[in-house]
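Lecture 7, part 2: worked example. A protein chain together with magnesium ion.
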Amino acid sequence: MNKKKIALIPGDGIGQEVIKQGVKVLKTVESLDENIEFEFTDFPWGCEYYLETGKMMAEDGLDQLSSFDSIYLGAVGYPTVPDHISLWDLLLKIRKGFDQYVNLRPVKLLHPGLTPLKGKSREDIDFLVIRENSEGEYSGKGDWLFEGNPEEVVLQTGVFSRKGTERIIRYAFEEARRQKKKLTSISKANALNYSMVFWDQVFNEVATDYPEVETESYLVDAASMFFVREPERFEIVVTSNLFGDILTDLGAAITGGLGVATGANINPEKKYPSMFEPVHGSAPDIAGKGLANPLAAIWSVAQMMDFFGEKQWSDKIEKTLEDVLVHESELTPDMGGKSTTDGLGDFFCLKLKELK
Ligand code: NAI
Ligand code: MG
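Predicted complex, written out as structure tokens:
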């Protein structure tokens, strides 16, 4: 019996609405597979909690979460709470506190109609971006000297430790070997003469341990162009925190946008729980109206199943996403459909059952 404890943090706005659909999918999986059991625990954290208590999560929040196998998060953000508070005091606290140093973002076209790229098919756009998620350009280190004076100087430091750089690159090589795919490193050593020279050096060093993995290296500017013009060049991509942040939004743009973009924050050693979440935010403009597209949150469930070692279920959920996307009227309005968040969630579960 594969029994997993899942912490639910639906958060704010449409986070609540889409996580509800993801839980329906998890319960459907549970009902179809007698060897899988989930135990859900709800955590009411987020901006509403902040407005009541002055905190985004409980004081001992990380302790409370530490015994779970995974965290399933909707989105946080509320118009009356500054975004840096909701981001740093919940999301980043979890990502950093649980050393979720791998960010996995599939760039996979689930339906040909979803890409704005002319002449690109589903075979052309199918890769995985592995983004460094713990240091690099987003280390938060730097200085602000002579603030407000004419001599003002601002320093924003990129931190690339040997440990941090090597572990993300090694993770990517392991994944490329496991999937028998080409690995592309994206950096910028011509301009960033310390950090990215180091990145390239570590990439080449680690590569010697994986002679069977085919590798390529691109500068980030050239890579951005190829994401659009020739996405078929990529199979697995490894890149730094900042480059990965930008490139994965570009990846989302060529595969259907926020309604279908997912991301996993992984602690590969499983010392701490990993976190699965749709990429989109709390969308206050459409919250509470049943307009939110739940497919991104459902794709997160597929990533969670893969992480749990239930590959057959992550494959089935992805296959069902493809099936569902063919039925345009059953989709939410952002995809040209007439259905609601709940309606699409139910339709998805129906299709998942049919697949069995
Ligand atoms: P957003 O992703 O919430 O919304 C951007 C636009 O896309 C909106 O027009 C929204 O209606 C639409 N949209 C997003 N997800 C959708 C879905 N599933 N179905 C249909 N339409 C969808 O980003 P925005 O507006 O910049 O931020 C709103 C709040 O969310 C802010 O407080 C922000 O800080 C927070 N946020 C939180 C994130 C997280 O928790 N991981 C990520 C991004 C933003
Ligand atoms: Mg981003």
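DSSP finds eleven helices and twelve strands in the chain. Residues 14-32 form the longest helix (19 residues). Keep this in mind for problem set question 3.
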